[in-house]
From TrEMBL:
This is Hemerythrin-like domain-containing protein. PANTHER family: HHE DOMAIN PROTEIN (AFU_ORTHOLOGUE AFUA_4G00730). It comes from Streptomyces bangladeshensis. Gene3D superfamilies: nmb1532 protein domain like. Residues 7-120 form the Hemerythrin-like domain.
Length: 163
């Protein structure tokens, strides 16, 4: 099956992968540290690619609420802060780790749910398929660039949270 270029589908695929990683991070049988590492890279790359390539383009559509897009950016900040708090916990699986994980799950799940209902549904209804494919290609390229740069490393997440 050919990989979708539709930006809406690409974002949804990332959201589903994040949910799988949450399940792994909660599981005592899984390599929770590895799941967190993959999650950190994915969350940061995903958010930066949305903010660089997708959100600015969607703001130009009159039927997509600019406030929802700006709110999405604000929620990325909250997710990044929650991610940093978890990355800074010394012991994977400790009580503190579990607590910070649940705060991260809460922040990211809330954002993904809201983004899917407002921004992505708006994009699906108002943005032509060829434009969504263009945005998808730009999103994927930026996301890959960030992933190659190790964007989820704790020092980088710290820098993003402080900026």
């Amino acid at each position: 099956m050919a990989e979708s270029q539709d930006v809406v589908e690409l974002i949804l695929q990332d959201h589903r992968r994040m949910e799988e990683l949450f399940r792994l991070m909660r599981s005592v049988e899984a390599d929770r540290a590895a799941a967190l590492e993959e999650f950190a890279d994915l969350l940061i790359a995903h958010a930066l690619a949305e903010e660089a390539k997708v959100y600015p383009a969607l703001k130009r559509y009159k039927n997509i609420d600019d406030e929802e897009v700006e709110h999405g950016e604000h929620e990325h900040d909250e997710g990044n802060q929650a991610l940093l708090a978890l990355l800074e916990v010394d012991e994977v699986g400790s009580g503190e780790w579990d607590e910070k994980l649940e705060e991260l799950v809460e922040a990211v799940t809330h954002h993904a749910d809201e983004e899917e209902r407002t921004i992505l549904n708006g994009a699906r209804e108002n943005v032509a398929m060829d434009r969504r494919a263009e945005l998808g290609a730009a999103f994927r390229e930026e996301r890959e660039r960030q992933l190659k740069a190790g964007c989820g490393a704790v020092d980088n997440v710290r820098r993003i949270v402080k900026s």
